[in-house]
Amino acid sequence: MSKPRILVARAIFPDIVDRLREHFDVEANPDDVIWTQQELAARLADKDGVLTTGSQRVDAALLAAAPRLKICANMAVGYNNFDVDAMTAAGVQGTNTPDVLTETTADFGFALLMATARRLTESEHFLRAGQWTKWSYDMFAGSDIHGSTLGIIGMGRIGQGIAKRGAHGFGMRVIYHNRSRLAPALEADCKATYVGKEELLRTADHVMLVVPYSAASHHTIGAAELALMKPTATLINIARGGIVDDAALAVALREQRIAAAGLDVFEGEPSVHPDLLTVPNVVLTPHIASATVPTRRAMANLAADNLIAFFDGRGPLTPVNQPVPGLRA
Ligand code: 8YV
Question: ipTM above 0.90?
C-alpha cells in the first residue's frame, strides 16, 4: 500500500522530517519559502496531511483546493490560523501542540515583564551608544516586580504558569480575569484571585495578556482599556497580535499614559506598527516566547506524532475539533 502524502509546510528540524519519512511520502520545505495561499493550495492538491505553523491560514478556500486532505497538524498551541468550523464541516482533523510549551512560554512572559519593568533594552542601547558618562539617581529607574500586583488576562495553562512564578517566586499579589473562574484548588495553587476586567486594569501594576485570539478577544486592550490602567503600569502581550490595538498602545506609550509595554506578538506580524518602533518605552521581540531548542523540538515532535497516530488509526493525540470521519477520500 502506498504511504500517505504529507506536506511539511515550513522548515522544521531535519531529523524530525526524516522521522516523518519513515511513515509518509513527504514533501518538505527545507529552504523555508513563505508560500502564498495559492502556492500552498497547489502543493496540497495531492496531499493527505499537512504540518503547519501558526502563521499558515487554513480556510474553506484552501480546503476546497485540497480534496484528499484529512489532517492539519499545527506546530503551535494557538490555532487561530485554522477556520475550525470550515475544517469540521469538511471532515478535516485539526491538532495543536498544548502542554509542551507551557513552562517555556511562562518563563518568557516573566523575562519580558522583567525586561520591560526594569528597562533592560532601553538602558543597553544607551550604554552601547556611549551615552553612559555618570551615575544619576533616576537613570533608568523602573518599577518593582517583587511585591507588586500582577494582573493576568487569560488563565489557561500558560497564565497559571505565570501566576505561580509571580506569586511563589516574586511575592506578587496575583489577580486574574478569565472567561470562567478556576476551580478553588487551582486558584489556591496559583495564589490567584478572580476579579472583573475593569478592576484588574485599574489595580494591576503589571498586566499580562495570555488569552487566545478569537473575534471575541480582538482588541481586548484598546484606548478605553489603556485609559483605565495606572500611569505607572506595564503591559505585556505574549498572546497574539490583535489582542491589543497596537496603534492605540503606541499613543498611550508616547503620551506616557502607561509606563511601558513588552510585546512579543503584533497585529499583522512580521510587520510591526511603525509608531511602536519609535517609542522608547517598549521592549519588542519577534514572537519567540516558545523559542528554546528543547521546546521547539517537543512542538515539532508532537505535531509529527499527531500525524503518525492519526494515519495509524490511533486517532489524533491533541485534537482541536471533532470532524465526522470518512468525509474525505
Ligand atoms: C509558535 C505560538 O512559535 O504556540 C503558539 O501558539 O504562538 C508559538 O509557540 C508560533 O505560533 C509558530 O507556530
Answer: yes
pLDDT tens for the chain, 329 residues long, are: 799 999 999 999 999 999 999 999 999 999 999 999 999 999 999 999 999 999 899 999 999 999 999 999 999 999 999 999 999 999 999 999 999 999 999 999 999 999 999 999 999 999 999 999 999 999 999 999 999 999 999 999 999 999 999 999 999 999 999 999 999 999 999 999 999 999 999 999 999 999 999 999 999 999 999 999 999 999 999 999 999 999 999 999 999 999 999 999 999 999 999 999 999 999 999 999 999 999 999 999 999 999 999 999 999 999 999 998 778 87
Q: Could you give the 3-state DSSP secondary structure of residue 181?
A: coil
Q: What is the CATH code of the structural domain delimited by 102-284?
A: 3.40.50.720
5-98+293-312 shares its CATH topology with 102-284: yes
> What is the CATH class of 5-98+293-312?
alpha beta
Candidates 77, 217, 292: which one to mutate for ligand 1, based on the most atoms within 8 Å of Cβ?
77
Q: Which residues contact 94 (CB under 8 A, 6 or more apart)?
A: 58, 71, 72, 74, 79, 82, 84, 87, 319, 320, 321
- In the residue annotation, 269 being an active-site residue is answered as yes
Question: What atom of ligand 1 comes closest to residue 81's alpha carbon?
Answer: 11
Task: Report whether residue 239 contacts ligand 1, using a CB cutoff of 6 Å.
Answer: no
